[in-house]
Amino acid sequence: ALDNEVPVDVIHKLTAIDKWFLYKMRGIVNMEKILKELNSETVPEETLRRAKQIGFSDRQIGKCLRLTEVQSHQLRLRKNIVPWVKQIDTLAAEYPAVTNYLYITYNGQEHDVKFDDCGVMVLGCGPYHIGSSVEFDWCAVSSIRTLRQLGNKTVVVNCNPETVSTDFDECDRLYFEELSLERILDIYQYEGCSGCIISVGGQIPNNLAVPLHQRGVKILGTNPLQIGQAEDRAVFSAVLDELRVAQAPWKAVSTLKDAVEFASSVSYPCLLRPSYVLSGSAMNVVFTEEEMKKFLAEATRVSQDHPVVLTKFIEDAREVEMDAVAKAGRVVSHAVSEHVEDAGVHSGDATLMLPTQTISQGALEKVKDATKKIANAFAISGPFNVQFLVRGNDVL
To answer: How far is it, in rounded angstroms, from Cα 343 to Cα 316?
Structure first.
């Protein structure tokens, strides 16, 4: 239906929303075809502008023109194709809208706001889903309020209206926008931000630390390159070995054969999850080879750019969470909690006890010692979380 004319009798049966969607999809498909026939030298400014207006990201345009996202972004700027900051009219035009609800669009001709003072950017957690929990909203709001108490203006980017961080009076600038590299760069540059806090929004902003750093954004807190090393399972594991911090046997695998061989060597069950994913997205405990085939396919769909990590699943263990704050690698505050359930329940679903109830003092000292070593090794500045497995006096 996208490539051919839709029969008239079918058109009559479509709702207004269906017709709008069909029209939109036709425009997208046609634009993609046009862009793929062009390159960075031959693409007209108006074609590029139209692509942005109908929703193409720099990355999508770059893919069509055989460019990287960075090259696509630079091409757009050279042609002076920039978005406009608009204000959501919450008063239905009865009175001038003054509420702090902002968004970015390429379908405009002027900004609705003036950019006169820079502030500190705080990235929220985006839409709630497993792996992105409500505590991130509490962290973001606490960060915003503290910054304002210290006399700093704040620029918040988040796309979840069900959070306190997106209340219009919590910050100086509030953007209801996606947490993507392109969008954050646009806002950061318009607002002239003095820095960006990525450590209070969970995995989505955390994954942007290195790309933002590479594009000139000042990341406040832990050095983005250290964050990148901590996210790389192989690098992190090597550091733990150097620090003599025990860990469960694991392996990054990219084929079913490798996965089965590893599981056979350490014995089932195994914990399977994509790389660069915190919490429960596509994470499963695998007990048989048949389950391995099924769950490995799911994990690969979630993270096609990174191998899947298999870890020996330790049974009859308790999970202990260390939440801490460090400054230049030195832990200045911490809290240790214990899961009521045995290890294996996602922390968003688990019941936690504070302080711990069944963990021996010897095991707690090992947890604290390992935390200090990790904070120092990665020169952490800001909040961080480490999850340990405890069975008896053994800590992994």
So the answer is: 7
What is the mean predicted confidence (pLDDT) over 318-344?
93
Contacts of 245 (CB under 8 A, 6+ apart): 370, 373, 374
Furthest C-alpha separation in the chain: 76
pLDDT digits (tens, 9 = 90+) for 266-275: 999 988 876 5
Tokens at residue 268, please?
Answer: 């089932």
Beta-carbon contacts of residue 314 (< 8 Å; ≥ 6 apart): 248, 343, 389, 391, 396
- At 396, is the secondary structure helix, strand, or coil? coil
d(CA 34, CA 65): 10
Q: Of 219, 212, 214, nearest to 196 (Cα)?
A: 219
- In angstroms, the CA 381 to CA 68 distance is 32
Please tell me the distance from the alpha carbon of residue 210 to that of residue 208, in angstroms, as a whole number: 6
d(CA 142, CA 365): 30
Cβ-count burial 239-251 (b if 16+ within 10 Å, e if not):
bbeeeebebeebb
pLDDT of 83 > 50? The answer is yes
Sign (positive or negative) of CA dihedral 248, 249, 252, 256: negative
